[in-house]
Structure to design on (217 residues):
């Protein structure tokens, strides 16, 4: 499978492989599974952007794991003072990483504002290579699939095939309005088969009819 998936993700990888080679293939199921595996990386990447401030990183991590929260909840769950939470959250809002999503029901005082991660702050792209098609998907940081495109492209071991994939990816991203290269966490590629990750070789793929195919270019 994709070279970026580590051994620690074996269970999710096995699940993805079963879906990919299922005779009753559900494309959306495969892509959603793919996105979840890929997005296990997103928290670390987002946190690296804010690593200079450990408090801010804790807040981002909590919000990523809780779709909707409040400043009071952050203070209580993370053991932080309210002024610390307010200062950090306000800065995250100014950076467009966090957004206000509404208000909680009043319990007698001022209504608390609900906050959540800005789903469009970062995106990731996934590519599924099959014998006769290329499927591309764009997902936001909230695990939501924003765009799927499937094009007919017969797999080939010729280097020209890679050029065709490049063109398809460029066209796909151009069709995704408002998405810049800097907004992408990365692109994950799924190849059906058994891969030697250390040597970057497809050992065997029945679907693509290849053996010992090098992924080094």
């Amino acid at each position: 499978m994709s070279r970026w998936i580590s051994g620690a993700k074996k269970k999710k990888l096995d699940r993805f492989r079963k879906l990919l080679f299922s005779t009753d293939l559900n494309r959306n199921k495969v892509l959603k599974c793919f996105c979840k595996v890929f997005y296990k990386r997103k928290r670390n990447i987002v946190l690296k952007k804010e690593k200079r401030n450990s408090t801010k990183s804790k807040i981002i991590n909590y919000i990523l794991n809780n779709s909707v929260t409040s400043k009071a909840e952050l203070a209580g769950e993370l053991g932080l003072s309210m002024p610390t939470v307010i200062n950090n959250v306000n800065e995250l809002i100014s950076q467009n990483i966090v957004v206000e999503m509404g208000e909680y029901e009043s319990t007698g005082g001022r209504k608390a504002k609900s906050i959540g991660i800005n789903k469009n702050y970062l995106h990731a792209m996934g590519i599924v290579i099959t014998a006769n098609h290329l499927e591309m998907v764009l997902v936001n940081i909230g695990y939501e699939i924003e765009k799927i495109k499937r094009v007919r492209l017969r797999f080939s071991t010729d280097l020209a095939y890679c050029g065709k994939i490049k063109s398809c990816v460029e066209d796909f991203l151009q069709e995704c309005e408002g998405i810049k290269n800097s907004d992408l966490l990365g692109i994950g590629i799924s190849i059906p088969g058994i891969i030697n990750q250390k040597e970057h070789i497809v050992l065997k793929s029945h679907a693509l009819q290849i053996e010992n195919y090098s992924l080094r270019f």
Summary: Confidence is low (pLDDT under 50) at residues 1-10, 16-25. The longest helix spans residues 159-175.
